[in-house]
Amino acid sequence: MQDVNVIAPINQLGYGVVGTNITKSLSKLAKISLWPIGSPEASNEDIDILKQCMVNANFPNFDSPCIRIWHQHDMSQFVGRGLKIGFPIFELDKFNEQEKHHLSYLDKIFVCSEWAKEIVAKEIGNQFKVYRKDICVIPLGVDRSIFMESSSCREETIFLNVGKWEVRKGHDVLVEAFNQAFKEEDNVELWMMCHNPFYSEEENSKWQDLYKSSKLGHKIRIIPRQQTQKEVYSIVAQSDCGVFPSRAEGWNLEALEMMSCGKKIITTDYSAHTEFCNNSNSLLIDINDKEDAFDGKWFKGQGRWAKLGQSEITTISDHMRDIHEQKQSGNSLFNKQGVKTAEKLSWENSANRILSSF
Hints:
Number of helices: 11
CATH topology of the largest domain: Rossmann fold
Shape: globular
Radius of gyration: 20 Å
Number of domains: 2
Strand order of the largest sheet: 2-1-3-4-5-6
CATH class of the largest domain: Alpha Beta
Number of strands: 14
Helix content: 25-40%
Order of helices and strands: EHEHEEHEHEEHEHEHEHEEEEHHH
CATH architecture of the largest domain: 3-Layer(aba) Sandwich
Distance between the termini: 14 Å
């Protein structure tokens, strides 16, 4: 059996969900030695598997490949003499000098999408002699034992956005699109499950106030962060459509999870989620231009991301209104093509792609 060393966070945040699921899936196919980044937080179902992987780390095979699932600016620490493989999940189309320096140190680079592969090749390929064959696309997955097909039993049309409060995720324009799309008499709600653990309570409150104080604020529900994937599913199951007007994404786990449940998806036709979002399974927001990635908090203009202007906001509104009219007319909103997409993007598929890339 192949030995693989894994360094990754284990928790319910983005990188942590990826680290947990890739470790679990690899452990069915290989002997995994795991070094968690930070304090591990696992669900009861995953504890035994992950504990065994951490026990294996007491006697690792130092000649085995080592995968570090983490940010591209922090790729210096690996275990052993084997292949050093970085697996960063990034949103922007440009790297700074520190990121280039760390990525150039790696023997292989795993990325989630063809979009990301092109960026790595362009940004560091020529300067550091990183060859395209050493940049491997490993699509992420969804756990369909949790995110299974479901239909909302509610009379209202429920739109749901999941993802921590950020300008990058288009939360500044989604509220405008919702208020533009609907009137007081429309039987519709927007649910925002967007608590950002990296913001202060005051910063989180400002985002909530933006929504609750808007024209249709009484039709907007702010949902606290859920602690497990099953709790997330319980919210998703009650919704009709996921709306993700993102300026840039490293993958967009939540969109794929909602697809897996058969929910309609509205999202931008830009960045990493174009790996699985297309005209057959999503209502796309065409992106006509890009702009400097600046939000005054996390992004300071290093790269560029999708520009969301009035035309894009109108498109979001039109798509939301169309979904609402379909539901109120009694038509099915089941996203059959979305489910087919999710069936192909399992974590087992991710694990197999990893093992075949060594």
